[in-house]
Amino acid sequence: MEQLERLGIRAREAETSLRLLTTEKKNQVLHQAADDLQKNARQILAENEKDMENGRKNGMSAGLLDRLALTEERIRQIALGLRQIAALDDPVGEVIGMKKRPNGLLIGQKRVPLGVVGIIYEARPNVTADAFGLCFKTGNAVILKGGSDAIHSNTAIVDSLRQSLKDCQVNPDALLLITDTSRETTRAFMKLNRYVDVLIPRGGAGLIRSVVENSTIPVIETGTGNCHVYVDETADLSMAADIILNAKTQRVGVCNACESILVHEKVKEQLLPVLGKRLGDKQVEIRGDESVRSLIPEAVPATEEDWGQEYLDYIVSMKTVSSVDEAIAHINRYNTGHSETIVTDSYENAQKFLDLVDAACVYVNASTRFTDGFEFGFGAEIGISTQKLHARGPMGLLALTTTKYIIYGSGQIRS
Amino acid sequence: MEQLERLGIRAREAETSLRLLTTEKKNQVLHQAADDLQKNARQILAENEKDMENGRKNGMSAGLLDRLALTEERIRQIALGLRQIAALDDPVGEVIGMKKRPNGLLIGQKRVPLGVVGIIYEARPNVTADAFGLCFKTGNAVILKGGSDAIHSNTAIVDSLRQSLKDCQVNPDALLLITDTSRETTRAFMKLNRYVDVLIPRGGAGLIRSVVENSTIPVIETGTGNCHVYVDETADLSMAADIILNAKTQRVGVCNACESILVHEKVKEQLLPVLGKRLGDKQVEIRGDESVRSLIPEAVPATEEDWGQEYLDYIVSMKTVSSVDEAIAHINRYNTGHSETIVTDSYENAQKFLDLVDAACVYVNASTRFTDGFEFGFGAEIGISTQKLHARGPMGLLALTTTKYIIYGSGQIRS
């Protein structure tokens, strides 16, 4: 704990010094950091190989090993990511809504960094540079706690980035890595609310739950997505099938992929056999209610548990409903507040769905896969918030800022 | 816990039904609720008398008894508060920044209720109606947990409000009161993150700390204010003294009152004797460093603890500094992120103070006492946030809303 406190104090000090940097200076640092990562690629790859070896020894799955692996090309991509962040507009410093009060006070909200950001993530070393870039661009110091599986890779990347900061005469404590990856240290980190302004977990549902339950630092929940596509009775059925195929199969391991399909009973006879065939061609297992199974014989019975499941796999649950209201009620009961789509040609049902479905992103006639900072035009993404406070949906640079009121007076006192 | 879960489920159901109410309907309910509170004044006063009697029996301080007491006039004020909320613009439903993406998707952010708001507060029955009014106007269901000292008053007020909801054909579970005021129930309430979207504690530092440490529901921290006035070397000293007197003594028990004064050493000989006299006339005890005590003989020695203290009393700490930088560093070390003022005629130092002081509200040449939703022109206030996520500074109706992305497509899929 004492060691963590010292880290916290160092991050706070760095944060204060970051407030003085111009956007020009921050961009210079980001370009330098990108150059240095590519220059240091050989060392970084050697350290990554240690993690890979451990991973293989410990029986890590092929999918996880792929996420952990770095290559020259991936390091080039990571460096490119930092250059892209440099190219984005700096949101810090903007003053919003400045107005004069009747007593002459001029009051406005100035956009400022959050301060110190904590990020807890799993075995994806690319997050290390990415999180630094986004936090640094917005003037935040960042404390990273990566997974033990990627500790060598993360340390090598952080060493390179901190050296770039030093070379640019910036306090290198703008980026700190917790190298002790024990569970106790992680728990203690979550209690560091005196020094850390926000904690963002990036990883699976278990990690996120643990952070929500244990953190005294304000948390931004990201990621879990039990996303639905509802096909209304008035839908263009070929559009519906295309959207479902895209939302389910374009990439299955991501939070904005479709996990559950609702079909209005009036179109089930036309649509379900087509869906059964097309999803089957893509090796998607369908878990359906009785009505679905009567039209898709390959479907297996869905259990109550299936409706709340985020599979992240070639599996989908499927159900028929008798109205848009039933669809909305089902979604609001089982969803995780991520992304939901209605396919419809009814103006009334489209508006109702947009109004009543409780989620970060609600679509009419489009794939849920668009829920993404880049697709939304933010040029970057720190995660997708599924909570309601502060930021909801894809989070770009703005989500890493807060505001403070600045007030210009001329001697006003309150009577 | 089971009972609390049932409350949570009822609040969620009510929340869903509130989404369908028009602003007109919500305003009608608020007026009805105001009328009914005045109509039921006699019963409410009788119940309040029970709380007062218990308070007197239990040796409650005069200050707390005064906060607990209701009168015909106070009930009239509470009803007036509801009518004022009815008169405010409804922020729900506004769509912000709707733009067309290159692929034709039309993406915008719609302002929506947070959902279910939890409020934990102490013995101030006026908060009961006030919190209901603000939450209801923004389409939120609210679960209240008031102090045991005010349980009879709160129950009577809630009964009246719920009856008004029923009479207007609105689900009365839009307002729920936890009547079991035990510590265990309070703790369990803080874990109700499945049903409650945000928890707002309103009360003393102890209550707020307990909520931050125990809640799994996202919290908005409110209230603690160790506010500073810094008098720069170029200050108009008579303006400085007026601002200090106002910030310290206009009302001492509030979070935006000044608790600590910093004076540039170049003006200390002129200013401190005046301050000593004027604060002394108002019975303010001064706790000073050596340099202060050499000019104000009545001042007692300040300890390290004093610099971080929120007195909420006729006490102030006072210190001299040798530069604006020292003042800023001192403030950023000891403040609670509430409200800070510089009195200066230096453009450079004013800008530096606004840029570098880390607080919700940073003033030049004005009293800290203006940090208030009404003074800022919001027409209402749910509290003053001293944290950085979601809302910072005085919170009006907007702070009780979130956004969701709404996306209009025409069959877009991701490639």
Automatic annotation (TrEMBL), chains A, B:
Pathway assigned to this chain's UniProt record: Amino-acid biosynthesis; L-proline biosynthesis; L-glutamate 5-semialdehyde from L-glutamate: step 2/2
Catalytic activity entry: L-glutamate 5-semialdehyde + phosphate + NADP(+) = L-glutamyl 5-phosphate + NADPH + H(+)
One term of GO molecular function: glutamate-5-semialdehyde dehydrogenase activity
InterPro entries found in the cross-reference section: Ald_DH/histidinol_DH (IPR016161), Ald_DH_C (IPR016163), Ald_DH_N (IPR016162), Aldehyde_DH_dom (IPR015590), G-glutamylP_reductase_CS (IPR020593), Glu-5-SA_DH (IPR012134), GPR_dom (IPR000965)
Primary site of residence: cytoplasm
Domain of life: Bacteria
Pfam families in UniProt: Aldedh
GO biological process, any: L-proline biosynthetic process
Family annotation (PROSITE patterns): PROA
Keyword Disulfide bond on entry: no
Keywords: Amino-acid biosynthesis, Coiled coil, Cytoplasm, NADP, Oxidoreductase, Proline biosynthesis
Coiled coil: 27-54
Domain Aldehyde dehydrogenase stretches: 8-281, 312-377
This enzyme's EC code(s): 1.2.1.41
Subcellular location: Cytoplasm
Cellular component GO terms, alphabetical: cytoplasm
Role according to the record: Catalyzes the NADPH-dependent reduction of L-glutamate 5-phosphate into L-glutamate 5-semialdehyde and phosphate. The product spontaneously undergoes cyclization to form 1-pyrroline-5-carboxylate.
Family that this chain belongs to: Belongs to the gamma-glutamyl phosphate reductase family.
Protein name (record): Gamma-glutamyl phosphate reductase
Organism encoding this protein: Candidatus Pullilachnospira stercoravium
Lineage, top ranks: Bacteria, Bacillati, Bacillota, Clostridia, Lachnospirales
